[in-house]
Amino acid sequence: MGSFTTRRSLRRSAQVRMKSAGTAGPLSPKWTILALVIGFLAIIEFITRMGWVPVVILVPPSDVAAVLWKLVTSGKLFPDFWRTTWEVVISVAAAIAIGVPVGFSLWRVPLLGKALEPYLVGIYAVPLVLFYPFLLVVFGLGAIPIVVVAAAMGTVPVILNSWAAFRGIPPIYLMVSASFGCHGFARFRRVIFPASAPMIFAGFKLSLIYSFVGVIVMEFMVGNTGLGFRVSYDYDGFRIDEMYAYVAVIVFLAAIISTFLSRGEREVRKENANG
Question: Nearest 5°: phi and psi at 101?
């Protein structure tokens, strides 16, 4: 008995050490990504300073950082930053608010799901940005057509992922919950949503990608403010360093919103694990 306990303790200690080695230290994924980014920027800095790439195509990252600092300190960046931010947030929120109930309805009414599935898959493959002339006629210039297109692009993946997530729930979960008298919203909160949450959150992340692309592309094409508009404006004016500064801000904004979604997913999983 003592030897068995000792072996189990040693095994646990080894697992803890392996986990610590995989999540901390210079070889952890975060440090690896940081090293790759720094190395990539260093290579770009070198080849641009050497003149191997024309400045109308690529500029040194140090120059981009200097321009970005001027945009921040002068306050020029923030109106466009907040405009794009709330357009993306509203688009993703609308996609989630529409997509999850629709996916749930398709699961609860299988005949409706079978009838609409080919059309949803077809819409998923269509670039909805093509409909922006019609939306401009209906809503005019401004944020509304941008948000509508971006939300539409983000809604379809939420519907499909939510529907697939609900269909993937083991029937035994529903039968056991019904036998314990768990029905309605209580069953959705305690059984259905926890069982389907991983795939639903995968749909949320896809929605973020599509909505973000929709916002930037629409701002690029028809916007009069926002980060996408600034990228287009600077590109047309051959202000390449400022254009890349706004591109860097777009990447930063996407990373921030994605981090919030991932943190929300972890919190939901932690709450489900704790019962």
Answer: -60, -40
The answer to whether residue 183 scores a pLDDT higher than 60 is: yes
Task: Give the integer Cα–Cα distance in Å for 267 and 186.
Answer: 19
Q: Are 159 and 106 in contact (CB under 8 A)?
A: yes
**CA distances in angstroms from 200 to 113, 128, 166, 168, 193, listed in the order given:** 17, 22, 9, 11, 9
Q: Which CATH architecture has domain 61-273?
A: Orthogonal Bundle (1.10)
**CA dist 54 → 40, 235, 237, 244 (Å):** 18, 15, 16, 14
For residue 49, pLDDT over 70 is answered with yes
pLDDT at 266 over 80: no
Q: Is the pLDDT of residue 192 over 90?
A: no
DSSP state of 91: H
Question: What is the distance between the alpha carbons of residues 181 and 174, in angstroms, rounded to a whole number?
Answer: 11
Give the C-alpha separation, 185 to 166, whole Å: 15
pLDDT at 3 over 50: no
Distance of CA 76 to the CA centre of its chain: 26
Give yes or no for a contact between 204 and 131, defined as CB atoms under 8 angstroms apart.
no
Domain chopping of the chain, boundaries: 2-49, 61-273
pTM score: 0.78
Sequence-distant (6+) residues with CB within 8 A of 144 are 135
Instruction: Please enumerate in sequence order all residues whose Cβ is within 8 A of that of 93, keeping only pairs 6 or more positions apart, or say none.
Output: none
Please give the share of the chain, as a percent, with pLDDT higher than 70: 87
